[in-house]
Amino acid sequence: MHIYITTQGSRIVREGRHLLVKKGEDTYRTLFVEKLKQVVLFGNIDLTPAARALLFRHGVDTVFCTRDGRYQGRFATLEPKNVMLRRRQFCLLDDRDFGLRFCREIVSGKLANMVTLLMRIRRTRDRNEPKIAAREIRALSAGIAAADSIESLRGYEGRGSAIYFGALRWGFQQDHGFARRVRRPPTDPVNAVLSLLYTFLFNRVYAAIRQVNLDPYPAFLHVPDYGRHSLVMDLMEEFRVIIVDTLVLSLFNLKILKKEDFRVEQPAPAPPAAPQSAALPDVTADPYGHMSDLDSNGQFDVPSQRMGEETPDDLDMESSNGRPAVKLNDDAFRRVVENFERKLTTEFYYAPEERTITYAEALVAQAGMYRKVVEGSLLVYQPLQLK
To answer: Model's pTM, two decimal places?
Structure first.
């Protein structure tokens, strides 16, 4: 069970073997810890020490996000005990052929899902633009098959994503101001919901990877870097279209989300510049001797989760000061959470295991498939395809 706590000012307390979500004297929900797999807390949510200890004891993945859904961090649970598996993951980082095969499957699968969705839009909206975009993305297949480096595959992925997001607008019944993928801050309602749901998906893929005892850091398509969960980003690529993008289309086209569900927040004004002084500088004000200037984002800021220098399908606009941000109102935020969980309970036929499973189970199954590839019991990773 995956639980999202969004009620601002609420607190989670322990009562015996259970947890209670309370606000004031009112109890909103009872959580049976033995059934919990993940708890996601948004904004101003208090967690008592006793409740925290119970979550640790049961190994519940506990995630902290800002009120509007930006990931902040999570409790660190016990590391996987299979050190040989993790050693194998890191050793494979030096295996060029392994990395190239894996990235080729990931990129091919992601772009194939984009083509499938665009052709669905073509049939339902009766427009040629999605068909043209799908044809352009499909034309990249030959280059992907012949690519001799991961850098080239990143380029094909970036090109395909740019084409895809340029045509995705035609899938919406109304114009919501969406023209391309923009984040930090999102500049329109569609980008706001995409960013939020990609964060949800990231957390679920992370939990799936930990469930099969893999290390979330070493991977290939997203460059391994300090603090970057590269494997999470790699394995979530095939699910972006299948789970998030299709859900966003449904949320707007079924009018579950409307214009009044969003607000525009203006950026805070920049602080006034400090007055110039002729006095000698205070050397204690910068203990690193200007070395802190090497990282303008802060000494302990986690790097953005990018494939390389830039990821066109997830354009980072965080450095653009003065740009207003579009955000979901609280009631709409809860509707997005509810429908994301409902989407994950959708069942489909999972060919690798020849059985019907949910998308939530597929996240774990695909992580398990990658583990088999790492261990050598399976030769090729097969990304999930949108039907």
So the answer is: 0.79
